[in-house]
Amino acid sequence: MSKSDPQFLAELQEQALQAQDRFMQNIATRLRRPLVTEPPMHPFQGPPEYWDHFTLEPEQRIALFMENWGKVGGHARRLASMEEAKTFIINQAREMKAKYLIRQNQPELAQLGLEDALPEAHISSWDSSDPDEMKRIAAGADIGLLIADHAAAYTGSIVVKSAGMQGRTVSLLPTAMFALIPAERLATRLGEILPQFDNASPSGMPAGIHVISGPSRSADIE
Questions:
Q1: pTM of the prediction?
Q2: Measuring CA to CA, how many Å separate 124 from each of 63, 99, 149, 212, 214?
């Protein structure tokens, strides 16, 4: 009988199901409980109703985000203007002795004029026409610079979209990520942010939606 024969495959499927049943029955026996054959009832789905209306005042959101971002290993600074943000980025880049920076192709970042302010560093702007080259540059960058699309105070999370002139590697590959978060984009919880994507039309959806909560810990996954 061929291994691709339908009867042979059906027998294998039946053997696998029997082995699964024996395995589950053994667990139930050891726990001295009857084998559960029907899915349990789930009377509650999603967050409680009050959570859908839970919100914080702007100052509370800022303070909570900074606290939670710090708990997951990030560093947060409150800056009053884009000019202060520019000064902060310049000082940090020089303290880090950063030689290579990559930024999203966002008008607000272009207006900072970092290329002139940091002549000792090479600064690249994301160019979607050559994504492979951008990945190479981002992988070797000391700093990736972006403006967050959203942020959630309660989880200390930054939400970054990748689409068009915003490449996801800017936030993923450089040694350090600098994210500027306009105060009006800081929500209390992710539940205020995600429905915006649920309700978007297919043509209006970004290529990727990335929720970042502190530095990457992928090296801890074995």
A1: 0.74
A2: 32, 11, 20, 22, 24
